[in-house]
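I'll show a record.
***
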Amino acid sequence: MSSHTAPSFQLISSLRYEPALSTGIARQSQAYPEPLASPYYLLAFHRDRLIAAARHFEWTKAVQWLQQDLSSLQQFIDASIPDRERPWRLRIVVDSSGNGSVDVNPTAAMDPLSLLLPLYSPSGAPVWRVHVDAQHIVPSGFTTHKTTARDDYTAARLRVGITSPAETAEVLVLNPHDEVMEGSITTPYFRRREISSAGPDWITPPLSSGGNAGTSRRYALAQGFCTEQVISRSDLVDGEECWLSNGVRGFMRGVVVL
């Protein structure tokens, strides 16, 4: 790539603006990161993930912009919120020159405790259908870090018939070793295969399988909800329950559909 050509992608991180978080419900979770009273879900983790991506792509100006303190970042995002009384889906976008912007979209109301407790499932909450992609994705900086270059994920969703972001459906993407990398828009968690082993009951793919270092994934690991373990396609069982998470919806129950 020529040094005179701006990259054709930006760094992104999607997060939730949730008014209920401002009331301090995050204090119910031991591992929830500061700032506890922020309405932005896992804000510190989103900043960390964007900095890691900017460093990977050697975007010096982006790193400098992202290293502002959290209160300054929150003030920057605050300016984009149209109505502070309702939840929003936000997408922080950062380009190679260190310019940041925030895309704002409506999002459905939900029980805010779903953001905090992976074992808490509100009655009436939908169970997501979790499909498995028939093709493979080669791990790269574009799978490890979240950017606007998401054609592989869009294609995987279309291959299993997911055509709208509103669908309660997900597809697991696989690397060339047939290992689960992640979901197209979520981190997946499966029941531990060795029942007798000590540790959490749930496992999630390690970053060495090629997937994204998601914010809710980091939170679930810090909480002790799960541990990392390689998960192959052959390990998956039709109809087994699982969990999914992301920075907008928190934790959702799923069921594997093979």
User: Anything to note?
Assistant: The chain has six helices and eleven strands.
